Structures are given as structure tokens and as C-alpha cells.
DNA sequence: CGTGGTGTTGACATAAATCAAATACAGTGG
DNA sequence: CCACTGTATTTGATTTATGTCAACACCACG
């Protein structure tokens, strides 16, 4: 109970596998080292080899890459329950940079503790890796969106996807959700200019599909919106786990 | 020797870790089930849960997603030495579709055999997973390119990246490489129209940077091209392995 | 010799970027 | 309380990159 209270990760994993007491205990121990970061300060620098990962427990983060010309491409957003830097810890591979969008709370996870946890509870390891794999699938979906959808559909798709992910941790539903992103964040994620993002948001609002305003996303016609955005839950709805 | 002759994978992995005789033997056994596929016919259907992966030994493949409106986004190309469907085998997750670009040869790898191999030789498992992780990094780089680079830089970057990957398996260098892709493939990978791809290729050719013609890519000024494309090898040049 | 896939080029249409400027608003220091 | 600052949003005018449509050349292949 108290565990669930401070761990959206547990909530998320529970949606897919029933966690045993032992597994809950292991997860709980992974949450020992609580840390906070303030909005705007980057957490992990591009190329920095990570000895440490984080489990985000509250707030939003984005992972991004900066190009030589200074433009930024946001690769993904992380919401409570998501891992930050999991792959770079497991594979010592350099990754993108992370920046907290608001002040956040996260649990610091040392490589050794994570590997211990994985060794103790393979089922848990599988669940975590599977969730991470889902995140990768979303990056692919972003790629498809940026390459082949127009601005309006891209925006609609992103807002829907964030809604689905938030729903998994109880922070949103088909009505909408609170969202601390600025229009600049959306622009950098969608490969658009901030000005154009603003116009697109207006169009979506005026056509009665969705409103993004004052830190809140409100779906006005969820069915029509999913239709319009060609939003396919399949790549999120993985059923039937996992490692053989 | 005979192993190396038919396995670009071994060549690729050898660039990062010195493989023992035992490990080479395990790899060799993974290559037992030789199969061929003809160009154009898809291999793995979008959403099909994979019981089987492939190690590509000759030819080119692309992985892609088709959208509701029929447009296609190529997510990545696979060249000899690359795995196809590794993630879907390990995590039973649905993935993209695969299509051979030319007639190809591949070794079929059953899930159970792969897991056995991983259990026998953890170092090999690490090397393979690390190579796979490198591929994921390239998908991210594509995302950045499509989102934030103009068509010319995107094209230049893709051609350079393919060159680097081919060099790892001895199929290309800083002079150029053979490339069976059509301009349609390039268009679908870069999120452009085929017509525009043609124009961009002309520009690159006329500015003396690179020529793509008759199934061959020729770099005319490698240094200037990497500069122009903001091509950073860092995301390919992972040094210092791997799993702790 | 047709025929279909591929490449090439031109004319035109359009989505999105860029430039510019006004507004709103929260925080900050006087 | 107020002026001041910076950030976020909004909107219009214009430019630019890229897509779409159309036509033709080339070539391997049946």
C-alpha cells in the first residue's frame, strides 16, 4: 500500500503481471535513494556514460538530442513510472540527455542494485525490460509520425499517446489530463516550429477535437480524435508476456 | 575461417570483443538453418508475434511500418551481420514488418536456441545485445534527422551511416559502397517524396559531395560530407563494453 | 517490341518555417 | 503597490522547402 502510494512504476507493472510480495519488496528497495531535480537543469549529459539510472516517481522529464546547429529534437517524454537511463546502465552505451520539465522526484538506482534485483527476481526483470521495450516501440512510432503524418495528426497522436501512458499510472483518462509541457516542448518533439504548434493547437481546438491550454489537455471527442490521428493502441497494448 | 566466410555477424562482433573458440562454435551453430528469401516478399508481418529471428548473411532488408493511408515509413535498413526480429523474439513484442530489398540469405534462429546460446556464453549474449542496442541508437538518430535536418543533410547522413555500418563488415569504406536501394526506398526512409529524393541526389552530386547512381554510392569528399551532414560517429563508436 | 519499374525533369500547389509584433502573465526588486 | 523583466502564447505577412502532378527517357525482361 505505502509502496503503491509512492511508486507509479509498481502501478504500471501491475497492469501486466501480478507481482508477488517478494517482488514488491525488491521493487521497494529499489526506491530507497530518493532524489529531487529542479526544472530545466539537465540531469544526464549527452554522451555521459551512466553508472546510474532513475525511476521517475513524480513530474515529467524529456529526453532529447541537441544538434550542432543548436536545434533540439525531443526523443521522448518520461512520466511517473518510467525509467530514465535504463539502457545506458545495462549496456554502458551513451544515450540522449535528460531534462526535467518540472521539479521532479526520482529514485536513484545503482547498476549493481538493479542487476542484483534482476538476478533475484527474473520475472520482475522481464516485466521491467518489457516496459522498456514498449518505450522503444513508441520512439519508432514517433519516427513514423514525424516522417509520414502532417502536423495536425502528429500533434493529435502525441496528445493521445501521452494520455494512454498517463492512464496506466492513474493520471489521466479519456477525458484528458494535466500536462506541464510548453508549446516549445511540443514543437521540439514533433519537429515543428513553436509558432506552427500554436496554430495547429488552435485548429484542433476549433474543430472540437482536443484543447491544450493552461497546463491541461481536454479531449472533446475521443473517438473522432483517435480516428483522425490514426491512433493505434496496438503498439502499447502488448499482451502475453514475455521472456520465455 | 570458414565460419568468418559466411558470417558477417562474426566479423562485426569481432570488432568489439575477441571471441573465444567456444563462442565462435556457438555462433556457428546458430547459423545452421540457412534460408533464402526473394526480393519484395515481406518476411515478417506487422504485428505477427515472432517465434523466430534471423541473422542476415547476405543482401539488404528494410524494416518498416505501413500507415492507414497506405504510406510507408522505413524505420531502418538491415545489412549483412544484422539481426532481424531479435527484440520480438526476446520480448514477444510485436514489431515492424521486414522486406528483403534483394534476394537474401539468412540464418533462422529459434528462440530456444538463442536463449541456450545466451545461457552458455554470457559474453556473447552481451555482445549481441550491445550490437542490437547500437541499432536502436540509430533509430533515434533517424528520428533526430527527420525532425530537425533538411532533406539534403538527411540524405547525406543516411548515406554516411550506411557506409559506416557496411565498413564494419568489410563491404565499404570512405570511398563508397554498393547499394541496392532505389530512390523510393530512400524516400520512404527519409520521409520525403521520391521526386524530391531525386533532386536532392542531384544537388549532392553537383556539389561534389557524393554520388548515388547505378547501385553504387561514391563519396567524393568524405570530410566535407561528414561536416555537411553533421555526422557524428559517436553513436556508432561505442567503446568499452558492456554488461557489468 | 510492349511493358513495368526506375530515374529524370519541369510547372505548380501547399505545408510549414521565418520574421515580426502584440498580448498576457508570473516573478522580482524597488 | 508598481515598474520591470522574461517567458509563453497568439496572430499576421511573407518566404521557403517540399509535395504533387505530369511527361518522358531508359532499360531489363517477357
Automatic annotation (TrEMBL), chains A, B:
What region holds the Cyclic nucleotide-binding domain? 26-90
A molecular-function term among this protein's GO annotations? DNA binding
Recite the UniProt keywords alphabetically: DNA-binding, Transcription, Transcription regulation
Q: Which GO terms describe its biological process?
A: regulation of DNA-templated transcription
The organism's superkingdom is given as: Bacteria
- What SMART domains does this protein's entry cite? cNMP, HTH_CRP
Q: Which InterPro entries match?
A: cNMP-bd_dom, cNMP-bd_dom_sf, HTH_CRP, RmlC-like_jellyroll, WH-like_DNA-bd_sf, WH_DNA-bd_sf
Transcription among keywords? yes
> What are the transmembrane regions?
none
Q: Which residues form the HTH crp-type domain?
A: 149-223
Record-given protein name: Crp/Fnr family transcriptional regulator
Question: Which organism encodes this protein?
Answer: Seohaeicola zhoushanensis
